[in-house]
Amino acid sequence: MKDLQCLPSTALKQNRVLSPAPANPLRNMKLNWLHVLFGLVFIVLTGFMAALIGGLFVYGKGDFLAVLRNPEFRFALVFTLWTSVTATLLAALLAIPSGYILSRRRFPGKALIETLMDIPIVLPPLVSGVALLILMGPVLGEIFTKFSLDVVFTARGVVVAQCFIATPFAIRAFKQGFDSIDPRLEKVARTLGFSQGMVFLKVTLPLAKGCILSGLTMAWARALGEFGATAILAGITRMKTETLSVAIFLNMSIGDIQFAMSVSMIMLLLALFLMSLFKFFTSSEVSL
Amino acid sequence: MSRVLLEVTDLRVKAGGFLLRDINFEMMGDEYLVILGPTGSGKTVLLESLAGLRDIAGGRVCLRGRDITREPPENRNLGFAYQDGLLYNFLTVRENVLFGARARGMAGDPGVIRRMEELVGSMGISHLLDRSPKNLSGGERQRVSLARAILTRPEILLLDEPLSALDPQTRYAMQLLLKEIHSSEGLGIIHVTHDFSETLQLGTRVIIMNNGRMEQAGRPKEVFFYPSTEFSAKFIGMENIIKGLIRKDSQGQRWFAVENGDLNFGPLAEESFRTGQLLRGSDPAILLVRAGNIRLERGGPPAAAVNCWDAVIRNVFYDRTHVDVYCGGKGLWRTNVSFLEWENLGLGEGDRVRLSVRPQDMHVIPGAGYHDVSETGP
């Protein structure tokens, strides 16, 4: 301290300049306000989501058990599960080769084809339904009828509509999974004695497993909640093409709020389960 | 003399905008061949082409006389390991090592299991067998990757920069392991690297690659002392690369005259032209001299400017084993001396010195613009 006092005033000034600059209170204030503002928005949004879900539970819990025993609900639940699972598996069969080609090959018009495959994501589901109705009706309808595979206003129509909506989500996820694989891992497997097809099965698919499972979960979630395209292509027929979404619409339209609320609760629980599954798969993705 | 193991003739490979061309070499059964070159010179493309992982646009690859140019990789019986010891994280170390045997449906064969146990024992990775590759160090990963590549007894082991991602200690241990594998397994090894010291330590023969072409091939020491092109000389770290001309005196003896200077080296004996090109009077040429072959002495009376010249010490750098001395005088020259010698000389930066080189330590190669008349005929 004594030494410091002996220093000329200029040196003290220099020393002050060299020492860390004092914190700028105004700058800190701005940062704090920003945090407060963001925090408020975050709290309001969280509260809104909680109220939304809570409201559904409060209003839907009334005769929940009675609705679970309702034959119409049971039909809609089983019908939704089998159509959505079938649609998801079909989507996977279409998306695995498409995602692989888009990830590994370069060809003219690739960007255009990629955009074309993404169309169902941005297209309003009703428009998708109309387009499917035209394709499966006037354009290809006769061929399907010839093989007794009618699509329009049948359960098959539900699967086709769900698959159409779900496939682009699966393609995107699978492509991302294939992109993340170091191609040298596949090359090493070739030199170890695996053929190209075996490399795909033994190396590529296991390495892309995380992205494939998360893609399947997203595709299933989209198929499960599908309404617009299904309504146009397969129609809204009670106990025939009645998915859970269709059941909500039908019962709301005739004023059976309790039934619609209970089904909505079931769908919400399914959505929460699927989102948890998605998060699990994306967080436990295979790392190289 | 061992038989030819691999024969590559006029190999031509297109990889995007890159072209690998005019690749010709033979590899004997007991050789450790190093492919040396800078990044982008085509080393990995060449290695992958030999493994069958790239489409070949032209030429021929024969393994023990059998044409394998169009054979798929799984039918070639060549082992391959990349630089970062790529392992399959969804398998255990044991499953990784046995992966090649699994491809052949032999993963459960008692003979294969015995061989695997012997291999992992000799490589010091037995204790890792039930672990996931995710938790292994770089050296351990590389050992597992090597064990996997040689388990099924390939005829040639192809290694793509296997030591570049390792720390110096692990690298030394891996070099010993590679030497051991080469001698005990009795297989040929082709090792790609950009590090010339690896070439000197491991290789029995080296090919220098530049821009998709073979620049020079030979024994590592031969290439080290007598590079045949300016690129090779620069790449292997030749310290003194001097441009000039070949001159003939009245007795017909050839001399090297330094460009823009009154300094002459010679008379040049035939051994100064070891790379085979016929250099005549007024041909552009490059003189190559290793730093250790330039003699450094205290300055004296003016030098005669023949193989001997005066200079001033510009910079001195202490290395682990010697002292590098940069001297300015008719060009910039690098020489090196031992610590003891440097202490005895008692010199420092700014001191006048005399440099000299013996004719037998001079190596002359054609310079830019040289036209080889022997190729076109009289």
Number of strands of chain A: 0
Distance between the first and last residues' Cα of chain A: 57 Å
* Computed Rg of chain A: 28 Å
Give the number of DSSP strands of chain B.
20
* Oligomeric form: heterodimer
Overall mean pLDDT score of chain A? 84
What profile does the largest beta sheet of chain B have? 6 strands, mixed
Number of helices of chain B: 11
Give the proportion of residues in helices of chain B.
Answer: 10-25%
Output the strand order for the largest sheet of chain B: 6-7-8-3-9-10
Instruction: Indicate the low-confidence ranges of chain A by residue numbers.
Output: 1-18
Domains counted in the coordinates of chain A: how many? Answer: 2
Q: State the major sheet of chain A.
A: none
Q: Approximately how much helix is present in the residues of chain A?
A: over 70%
Mean pLDDT over the residues of chain B? 88
Give the CA-CA distance, first to last residue of chain B.
38 Å
Task: Give the CATH level 1 class of the largest domain in chain A.
Answer: Mainly Alpha
Shape of chain A: globular
Structural class, from helix and strand content of chain B?
A: alpha+beta
Unreliably modeled segments of chain B:
none
Based on CA atoms alone, the radius of gyration of chain B comes out at 25 Å
